[in-house]
TrEMBL record:
This is Isoaspartyl dipeptidase. The modification N6-carboxylysine is found at K157. It holds the Pfam family Amidohydro_1. Belongs to the peptidase M38 family. It comes from Sutterella wadsworthensis HGA0223. The active site is at D281 (proton acceptor). Carboxylation allows a single lysine to coordinate two zinc ions. Carbamylation allows a single lysine to coordinate two zinc ions. Zn(2+) 1 binds at H63, H65, K157, D281. Zn(2+) 2 binds at K157, H196, H225.
Length: 383
């Protein structure tokens, strides 16, 4: 059973700035959040003095290649799997596993196994079924089947507007959205189409926008990597103002500079803050192509860029707003009702930061994973 913990003297961002609070954790849940908690006596309880440091919800990253991405450069270019301690060091307490270009050696069954493994180790994990391909690659043989039978599956991923995609037609996209919507209705999951966005904005957003007047709400459509190309970004901002959510990648390139710059640019275009999310593309391949479309190099994405994005965004609009794309907003967007906020009844996923927003402590479902900047709980095969 998870040990009870009382965090005292926390400068709480829940993610809104609440001020000084004591936080009681027991059974993996937040039990109480009060200005001062008196006479708390739980056997074995640990007391942590935050000493006025900032305490926030854990980050939620909806796009991590937990089984490793890549492969575009041949056999030696397959990216390594994610280690559990990388989640801890990145402050990511909840995640969604995703597959990418490689639909041959990276199976969806392997993705599910990795998501479950990281969850056993202490994080909270879900997944997108399929990868870049259309028709989708699934475990049960259908999109409806995966959403119905696999609790961790919240939606389906495809690629659009990208030379590595399968170039689905508008009708095929509409049919897939309809299947997702019906499966969501039957399972209570909502159901989402998570879209890897390439560089051709019209090829991505024309089919999505065309589906809305046909009865498919924008809430089912989740384009990501929307700030890598100017035309895609313009169309994404328009889509968000129609009621959709858009996802800015914290790593892997942004045509205007950084994820923080992209968020500010979206706000300046009157996109509501609560329609914008962040994700890392962690463990994904970062290929570089020349003008002829030939790959000339590649790297591996890191989830450390999530904390960097929060810090740089906080400098521009304040920490309370900077946290929202990876806490309350993404929790609401995915229907993760126990996540994203520091409130009684929510999961005890908490981060404690130092004066310079350096990560000091991490709690996942009430269990301390980092203490004083050092990872104290590692994965099964980590030294």
């Amino acid at each position: 059973m998870t040990q009870a913990v009382l965090i005292r003297n926390a400068d709480l961002y829940a993610p809104e700035h609440v001020g000084m609070r004591d936080i009681l954790i027991a059974g993996g849940k937040i039990i109480a959040v009060e200005p001062h908690l008196e006479n708390v006596n739980i056997p074995g309880m640990e007391t942590v003095d935050a000493a006025g440091r900032r305490v926030t919800p854990g980050l939620i990253d909806q796009h991590i290649h937990v089984t490793g991405g890549g492969g575009e450069g041949g056999w030696a270019s397959r990216c390594p799997e994610l280690n559990f301690s990388s989640l801890v060091k990145g402050g990511v307490t909840s995640f969604m596993g995703v597959s990418g270009t490689d639909s041959m050696s990276r199976s969806i069954e392997n993705l599910l196994a990795k998501v479950r493994g990281l969850t056993v180790e202490g994080a909270s994990g879900w997944m997108w079924t399929s990868n870049y391909a259309y028709p989708p690659a699934t475990i049960t043989g259908s999109v409806k089947g995966d959403l119905f039978a696999i609790p961790e599956c919240l939606g389906v991923k495809i690629a659009m507007g990208d030379h590595r995609s399968s170039f689905p037609t508008d009708q095929e996209v509409l049919r897939l959205l309809s299947e997702i919507r019906v499966a969501g209705m039957l399972t209570g999951k909502t159901g989402f189409l998570h879209v890897h966005c390439g560089d051709w904005g019209d090829a991505i957003f024309d089919p999505l926008e065309a589906a809305i007047p046909k009865g498919i709400p924008a809430k089912h459509m989740r384009p990501t990597h929307v700030a890598r190309h100017p035309q895609v970004f313009e169309r994404a901002c328009r889509f968000a103002k129609m009621g959709g959510f858009i996802d800015i990648t914290t790593g892997g390139g942004c045509w205007m500079g950084s994820a923080a710059d992209a968020l500010i640019a979206a706000l300046e275009k009157d996109v509501p803050l609560d329609r914008i999310t962040f994700s890392s593309d962690g463990q994904g391949s970062m290929p570089r192509f020349n003008e002829a479309g030939e790959m000339v190099g590649f790297g591996v994405g890191s989830i450390d860029c999530d904390l960097e994005a929060v810090r740089s965004t906080a400098e521009k609009i304040g920490l309370d707003k900077a946290l929202r794309p990876m806490t309350a907003t993404i929790a609401d967007a995915l229907g993760l009702t126990a996540k994203g906020r520091v409130q009684p009844g929510k999961d005890a996923d908490l981060l404690i930061f130092g004066d310079e927003l350096e990560l000091a402590d991490v709690f996942m479902k009430g269990r301390r994973m980092m203490q004083d900047g050092k990872v104290i709980v590692k994965g099964a095969f980590e030294a």
